[in-house]
C-alpha cells in the first residue's frame, strides 16, 4: 500500500500529537488519496494535498482490530475509510482514546496469555467432562417423563442382536425358573417396565437397557453357583434402571458429542459418537457414581428381601478368579466396566 511516510508531518504539530500517513477513500468512488492524519486530543484531522482538511470527533471513528502487521482501517461517517499499515501509530491512537483494542492485542500477543488460555480451556473441558456433564445429565434425566425416558435408545437391542448377541441356548425350564424369580423382583417396582431376556454372547455379563429390559447372558447364568448370585446381579441392573443410568449415559454421550462438535467444528464428531451408542451400552461403561448407586440399590433390595448380600460378592470374586481361564478376557468385561471391584466385594461381605 502506498503511504505518506510517517516522518512527513506538518511543522505545526506538537509532541503530544499523533501523526501517521494513510490512504483515504471517500466511500463514493474507488479513488484513493494520500493523506496525513493528525490526532489532537479527541479530534482527528485528515490533511489532503489538494482539498480542505476534514475533522472528526473520536465518537465518529471506528478502528478495526489489529491482526499482526496487516493494514488497519479507520471507518468514518458516510462509508469513508482510512487505511494504514502504521500499526504502532494506530495503537497509540487507541491508547490515547482509551479504546480496548490495543489491550486486547497485547493480551493476544503475549505467550503467557496464550499458555494461560490453553490451560483454562483444558480445565473447562475437563471439568465439563468429569463433573458438569454428569451432573447436568442427572438433573435432566429425572425430569424426563417416564414414557419418554423408557423410549431412549429404542432399537438398541435389535442392534445388539445383530452385532453382539446370539440366541440363548439355555434350556426352557431354566429360563422359566429365572424369569419367575425376576418377575417377583419386578413386582416390588411396579413403576418400572422391567423385562428379562436371555442371550448368548461369549461373555459373562448383564445389561440394563433404557426401556427397562435386562439382558443376561448364558455365560453369566452358567458361571453362577446359586440363583442368589444371579438375582444379586439382576438387582444391580434394576438399580441402573431405577436411577436412569442408561438415560443419563445417553445424555452424557450426546453432550460430549456437542462439545466435540464445538471443539473440532465438525458435526460428524457428534454424529459418529451417537451412532456408537449401542456399543456404549454393550460395554456398560458406567461411571463410578453410577455403580455405587446401583450397588446401594442392590444391597438394600437383598437385605430387605432376606437374600444373602455375599452372593453378589461371590459372583464378583468368581469373575475375578476366572481370569486364569481361557475365557477370562470375555468374562472380565463385566468387571472392567465396574471399577474398584475389591471395594465392592468388601462392601457386600460386610454390609452396613
Mind explaining what this structure looks like?
With 352 residues, the chain is of the alpha+beta class. The chain is 52% helix and 15% strand. The chain contains 16 helices and 11 strands. The chain has helices at residues 87-96, 101-109, 111-141, 146-149, 156-163, 172-186, 218-223, 227-242, 245-264, 267-275, 277-283, 288-305, 310-321, 328-331, 333-336, 341-349, and strands at 18-25, 32-40, 43-47, 54-57, 62-63, 72-75, 81-84, 166-167, 195-200, 206-208, 213-217. The protein has a 7-stranded antiparallel beta sheet with strand order 4-3-2-1-7-6-5. The chain has a 4-stranded mixed beta sheet with strand order 8-9-11-10. Strand 1 (18-25) and strand 2 form a beta hairpin. Helix 5 (156-163) packs across helix 11 (277-283) and helix 13 (310-321) packs antiparallel against helix 16 (341-349).
